[in-house]
């Protein structure tokens, strides 16, 4: 194997974290900000790109880091190595409520395609690259643009899903229509495109956007029930206006209550 062979355990239900057991000299790479805790003897190192053999050498590291810019991620990733002669653990946490999904790339012929912000961590040696869409419609209206992330190699990788995760096994020719933001990832044989919802009422008043994601088998698709963008929209919509606590929330008076209690400032 080119990737390190790691053992792991996923803890929790709604706010999960993955605990990875590293043998001596084994390593794992993770997105900046996902680290939770580690045992004594774990060495942390900031690296360009993903540090895989595909991005080996100075030029390879620069290219790998450049790919990460295109996906909206940081130039750097963090690598964690076990520097002792006995096993040590390092843990990484979910960024928001949902599920951590282990992906054994050997089960998917060495490649898995996922959303740009779905990747959490992976065994050292797994390549975290970009997947360009060759279809204009998908690039313009697919919600993820022309670029998605691709995980390649023969090791374990971990992606994060918001809310509850659904795994769908599609047969050859079988089609699944999904909200574009609800896709976590899919295997390389899946044909991914977008489809216009259709109908004037659906388009103007439906509230579901203009397009579905159209996924055609054969292959495996992972779906999330709560995309972070949807969660963020709900939080922003419910946030008090004017930067302060909305004391009239839920009352008949609403914002007028602030005027009556003299709390408004002009």
UniProtKB/TrEMBL annotation:
What InterPro entries would the database entry show?
A: AIM24, AIM24_sf, Trp_RNA-bd_attenuator-like_dom
Source species: Formosa maritima
From the UniProt annotation, give the residues forming the signal peptide. none
Q: Which SUPFAM superfamilies match?
A: TRAP-like
Pfam families according to UniProt: AIM24
In Swiss-Prot or TrEMBL terms, this protein is called: TIGR00266 family protein
């Amino acid at each position: 194997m080119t990737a390190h062979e790691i053992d792991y355990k996923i803890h929790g239900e709604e706010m999960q974290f993955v605990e990875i057991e590293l043998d001596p000299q084994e390593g794992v790479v993770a997105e900046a900000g996902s680290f939770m805790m580690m045992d004594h003897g774990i060495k942390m190192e900031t690296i360009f790109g993903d540090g895989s053999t595909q991005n080996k050498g100075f030029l390879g590291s620069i290219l790998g880091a450049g790919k990460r810019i295109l996906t909206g991620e940081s130039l750097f990733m963090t690598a964690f190595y076990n520097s002792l002669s006995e096993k040590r653990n390092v843990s990484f946490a979910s960024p928001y409520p949902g599920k951590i999904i282990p992906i054994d790339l050997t089960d998917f012929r060495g490649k898995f395609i996922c959303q740009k912000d779905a990747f959490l961590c992976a065994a050292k040696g797994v390549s975290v690259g970009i997947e360009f869409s060759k279809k204009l419609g998908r690039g313009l209206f697919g919600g993820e643009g022309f670029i998605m992330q691709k995980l390649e190699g023969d090791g374990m990788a971990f992606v994060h899903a918001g809310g509850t995760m659904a795994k769908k096994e599609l047969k050859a020719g079988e089609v699944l229509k999904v909200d574009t933001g609800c896709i976590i990832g899919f295997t390389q044989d899946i044909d991914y495109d977008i489809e216009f919802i259709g109908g004037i009422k659906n388009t103007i008043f439906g509230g579901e956007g203009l397009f579905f994601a159209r996924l055609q088998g054969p292959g495996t698709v992972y779906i999330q029930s709560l995309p972070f963008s949807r969660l963020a929209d709900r939080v922003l919509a419910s946030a008090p206006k004017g930067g302060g606590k909305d004391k009239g929330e839920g009352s008949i008076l609403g914002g007028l209550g602030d005027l009556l209690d003299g709390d408004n400032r002009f």
